[in-house]
Each structure stands twice: as C-alpha cells, then as structure tokens.
Amino acid sequence: MLFGSAGVLVIAGGACAALVGGVTGEVLTIVLISGGLAGGLLLVFLEIGLEEERDLARDQERRRSRTNKGARERKPLRPGGRTRLPRWPRRPS
Fold it and tell me: Cβ(28)–Cβ(10) under 8 Å?
C-alpha cells in the first residue's frame, strides 16, 4: 500500500511535467518525483530493518526454547546446585 503511494507520487510528478507549464510545473515535477522516489527508498530500508528484527526475534525464541529444554534435562552435580570451579596449580615461587 505504501509503495503504491510512492509510485502514485512519481506518476503525478510525470503528469505535472507533461500538463503544467512554466516554473510551477517544473517545481511540482521535482517535488513530486523526489518525494515519491525518496519515500520508496525509505520504505525499502524500513522493510529490510523489519525483516532483520523478525529474524532476531525468531533466533531469540529458538535459543529460549533450546535453553529451557536443556535446563529441564540437566540435574545439578552437587546438592547445593552450584558446581565448583577447577583450581589451577599455583606457580612455584
């Protein structure tokens, strides 16, 4: 729908170039065609950004479902629920 309005602006600019003479026609042509092309470009960038957001949300949902599934299957190693970190050997002095 929005891409159609950008196209309509470009077509209206072309019509103004053909039908309206003088400086007024030139100004209308430039304004309408520029607005339509700029609007179309902005809509393309908006679509790209929204698609990236959808992909990110899908990836996060996959990670969440994978993490929740793994958390249910694992049991804590110690009764307290915390695991000990390995101690590294000390350097000789």
Answer: no
How many structural domains does the chain have? 1
* 25 in any annotated domain: yes
Q: Which of 37, 13, 34, 39 is nearest to 24 (CA)?
A: 13
The verdict on residue 69 lying in a domain is: no
Which residues constitute the domain of residue 57?
A: 2-63
Amino acid 28 reads L
Residue 72 maps to a domain:
no
Element (H, E) at 31: helix 22-73
Which residue has 């700029």 as its token pair?
A: 38
Asked whether residue 88 is assigned to any structural domain, the reply reads no
pTM exceeds 0.90, yes or no:
no
Q: What is the C-alpha separation between 67 and 17, in angstroms, rounded?
A: 61
| pLDDT (tens digit per residue) in 39-59 | 999 999 999 999 999 999 999
